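User: I'm new to structure prediction. If I give you an amino acid sequence, what do you actually give back? Let's try with this one:
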Amino acid sequence: MTTDAHATPMPDADLSATIAALQEQERELVFRTFTNDDAWRLGCLLVERARAEGLAVVVDVRRGEQQLFHAALEGTSAHNDSWVQRKARVVARFGVSTYLANLREVARGRTFGQAHELPFLEYAAAGGAFPVRVAGAGVVGSVAVSGLTQHEDHELVVAGMRAFLAAA
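Assistant: Good question. You get back a string of structure tokens that encode the predicted 3D arrangement of the chain. For your 168 residues, that looks like this:
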């Protein structure tokens, strides 16, 4: 069994299956284009979903270094703002979701921090940030959520991106 600081123990077979599922999500969730208006609509969709479920989260959408959408729902704090910034930096640097970046290192028997020696107050590989990938262009930004467990943050982002892409 392997563990990390943010998850309950996971049998190695489950860990491998989870990593494979996360990699499939990244192949699946690709935009044709990604405009400022798209960022706004995606952010609003995530906020609406969070409100409908009574979730206290921060939602952040970026293209490159530019923050295009940010909302902090009731029950969140500046601490959540810091988490979305740190998660967005991981996506920008590694081009994968923070949950995948984290679990890949767990599968290797180490933490993300041990593997990359990046400052913890600047980079957080806790789940909840996902790359905005545009067909033919690659990763152009990120969508991040903070306020729930890393798995729940990740699932909220993925569900929102799926709904957005299905409606496009």
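You can read the tokens as a compact description of the fold. Here is one thing that stands out. The chain is about 50% helix and 20% strand.
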